[in-house]
Structures
1.
Amino acid sequence: MKAIATRRSVLLATATAGFTALAPWSHAKEEEDQAEVTANEDLMREHGVIRRALFVYREAARRARADPASVPLRGLLDTARLMRRFAEDYHEHALEETHIFPVVRKLKSPVSQLPEVLLTQHQRGREITDYVIRVAGGTRVGQGGGESLAATLETFVAMYGPHTAREDTVLFPAWKAALGEKNYEEMGEQFEDLERKMLGADGFEHALKQIAGIEESFGLANLSTVTAPPPPAA
Ligand SMILES: [Fe+2]
Ligand SMILES: [Fe+2]
């Protein structure tokens, strides 16, 4: 297990809420200093950043279908690059494929089959990220390209939501149970070291700030805009 540093907690609270004023959060600083982030909590909050990127992809798909010229290519490119660096190279490859899948594959239960399909989906995701980087790195999405871009982003969103949900609810708990308490705590430390090595000292917080900025540029920063309308009268 690892303690969250003061700076980390404050940055996290700021980036999460999208607020610039720290005052409302600072009273909770001492409590947060004592908080600990376990390996699975770490993995699941990484999924949170990834799902926010999926929300951006969904909006990019909607715009690509409605009017290809309206897709903010810079923001889409930033999202795809975040997926590459944070989700694929770090979360998927360095953590899941290197440390979690090998342990779960050895279990004598049906969960041992799960890494195979998860790995296939990681690989398909990388192909899609290559494609999005190519398209978003161009100067414009032509009329003919809007539908292909929309459909590809939608299939990625449709795949990756259930992918992360299955990992959160089946893969990670099975991995934790297989490791035992001591090894699990040690993995938490190792993940933290890997995060520092691959993403820098504030790797998670940086990714969180990046996705918050991208949401802002897509007009998605205000969470209340997605509150569902009341259902029809029965
Ligand atoms: Fe995964
Ligand atoms: Fe994952």
2.
Amino acid sequence: MTSVHRISVEGGPSFDCADGENLVAAAERAGWALPASCRAGICGTCEGAVCGGSFVAPGRNDDGAVLAGPSDGVKLCRARPRSDLTIAPREIKAVEPGSLKPLAAKVLRIDKPADDVAVIKLRFPAGTRAKFRAGQYLRVLLDDGQERNFSMANPPHSNDGVELHVRYLQGGRFAEAVFNHLKPGDVVNLRLPQGDFWLRESDKPIVFVAGGTGFAPVQSIVEDLLRRQIHRPVRLYFGGRTPQRLYRDALARQWAEKRPGLVYVPVVSSPTPEDGWTGRTGRLPEAVIADLPTLAGHEVYACGSPAMVAAAREAFVGHGLAPSDFHCDAFAPSMQVAA
Ligand SMILES: Cc1cc2nc3c(=O)[nH]c(=O)nc-3n(C[C@H](O)[C@H](O)[C@H](O)COP(=O)(O)OP(=O)(O)OC[C@H]3O[C@@H](n4cnc5c(N)ncnc54)[C@H](O)[C@@H]3O)c2cc1C
């Protein structure tokens, strides 16, 4: 029989969590939002303290050993209680009511700017506008109740629908539908907004690092930043395996032309001689480090594959970045995203 444990938030509410359930999901079920983004134990957004009680935390103790509080830097999206717990997350707030209610959106158009990327524009029913922050993501609800995470690429001021950038994955339930069957007029059910990948208020220079479809939330944030006339210095690194994979290269070049202080650096990891690529090559984190003597005093927003995000965090913190100035969404496969 599954045991249910009482989780008390220091100075805050309490909620129930079953043995096999993670703390972020249990809080959400009870109507409370803990900071969380990838929900796969990669991005670190959910890190908090367990002040007392015992728990397991895959990723920290893969052997399944039971840990006991007090313990700092626990990824609460992976932590599962083994007793009643007291926790101290970075913050806790009521779940945004909109994020619980499915929204039926209609496909307006689907474009394929690269062989492995589809840009899908969805429109909400007439008069419906979604409230979200630039950089957040949504959940696509599949027919059998499974969910898939995709970042919104449009800025919050164009909120009568959403734009998603979907990477092709062979056998991917949603990706195969987008590339093969979905057509204008079809309905897709969504829940939004989700996640904590959004621009913090500060004067620090910003470094965006976007790998592949990791460009989607960065597009939303940059378009929002341009509209709000935020004048912070910006460096945008966009990486892909080949030049063709830099599917928003033209848009990023336009931003750099029209916005003083925005530097765009495209980086290609594996160009072939036929590509005729004369720009930067290599991996994204190394390109950033080669350009900046230190990342102290900067804020980094990194988005893309879990491997790239993990490598960027390690390299940047080693290059002077304060860990609290590293913000990310790691595009973990939905299967790995904790239930
Ligand atoms: C916060 C967040 C935001 C995201 N935003 C985006 C986005 O804007 N655009 C985007 O393209 N993706 C994004 N992702 C990743 C996306 O949610 C997953 O890749 C998802 O599993 C794709 O769903 P699918 O139905 O197409 O494939 P699935 O049916 O989930 O997967 C099919 C197969 O592909 C494998 N697979 C799935 N994802 C990956 C991956 N990322 N790398 C390697 N193998 C994988 C699975 O293990 C499985 O074997 C995001 C993920 C997170 C956590």
3.
Amino acid sequence: MPGTVLVVDDEKNIRRTLRMVLEGDGLEVRDVERAEDALQVLLEERIDAVVTDIRLPGMSGIELLQRIRSMASWTRIPVLVISGHASVGVAVDAIKLGATDFFEKPLDRDRVLVSVRNALRASQLADEASALRTAAGAREEMVGESAVMRRLYAEVEKVAPTRGRVLITGESGTGKELIARAIHRMSPRHEGPFVKVNCAAIPAELVESELFGHEKGAFTGAVARKRGHFETADHGTLFLDEIGDMPLAAQAKVLRALETGEVSRVGSDQTFNVDVRVLAATHRDLEREAREGRFREDLYFRLSVVPIRSPALREHPEDIPMLVGAFLREFCRQNQMRPKPVHPAVMADLRGRGFPGNVRELKNLVERLVILSGDEITVDDLPAESLRSREVRERHGLPAPEAAPAAREDDDDDDDGAHELRVPGERATLRQHRDDAERAYILDTLKEVDWNISRAATLLGLERTNLHKKIRGLGIKREG
Ligand SMILES: Nc1ncnc2c1ncn2[C@@H]1O[C@H](COP(=O)(O)OP(=O)(O)OP(=O)(O)O)[C@@H](O)[C@H]1O
Ligand SMILES: [Mg+2]
């Protein structure tokens, strides 16, 4: 299994040892002393895995890890971190941030080899799986490599070749329509039409004529004969979006069409056959709607031969960097800009949000960031987390950022918002937002250096006394 491993360590001996061990195993090795140089190498060369010390002069190994995880084209590169004896806690944090594995000093030859080899094998398998899926066309638009998304791709691949009716459920903005389109694309009918009908958008009295067509003069306004969506979708796929909002009368007619494969236009007794595969989607709990009489139970059973659940974004936050990367490329291209880099703190912040509007909300946010930010997207560009997002996050027990501290009068930096007032309602002021970001960054840095204030102050570019002041002012406390 060939591959190139990038070793990042400021200690010459460690670099030499790792080079010997890895080259002895047939791997190529590149080594650099600093994280900054590692980023340069990553930009210029093909690297299959990174082994980095956590403590480095300048940018730390943790920040390097975060940068790698926040670039869409790098996010799948395995990153193994080396920690000193005293900083196993930091190594565990690194795992949470997406490190593949860690080892302690002094390095154990076999441990290193097993770990690097496993990491390379896992990432090659993931590459192959994703190449297969791309070949099959499933992923043309769907982004995400988390276990949750992989399960979804597997389900899509399984039902696509069949004629089975699929009911896609899931919260708004989770990608139900993308799933429906992927199923069609991967089905034997992909050369036939894909017809989408938004059942919630059609006025109740027009649903039947939209779906089944009408004869001239069938009702006032029916000035000409019209084909319905069932007819248009012949030999293809009919996607009934928001089926939960379809009026009961229309449901009866849809049920009949599904049972007999025949349809008739409004105002006509003549029936004819159509060859249509029906996919449906809803953000409602159809089972409950059926129980409570708002949806025909028999239709529900007919539609949900194969149920597929589209997962909420909070169930796979690990896909956020990859999604951000994909949307970033899309919107930068659309706006004729070069792809903008994203500060790792932005990814960390986004990963912690509740996203009640799911991927759609994230996508809209990225578009806004692309347009409003400068050369790099930083936490200053982020809007405050909305009240709804916070509620969702809390309801699902996702990790919460610490509460904002009481307003402080003194501040030592160039703060132009010293007299900002808290805006009632959901928005945090720029000041509160900046505090949150500062608090998170200082806390990360402190953890990284085991609360060595002098070291943290150096890394942060602050005087010790100023750092102490910030720690107090921002209400930062050492855990445990
Ligand atoms: N996994 C994904 N990868 C890339 N883009 C995605 C993904 N999931 C959703 N999107 C994007 O998010 C937006 C919303 O997706 P979609 O319209 O399919 O959601 P939906 O579940 O049908 O929402 P609603 O219930 O509100 O209709 C679209 O722009 C879509 O391209
Ligand atoms: Mg939709």
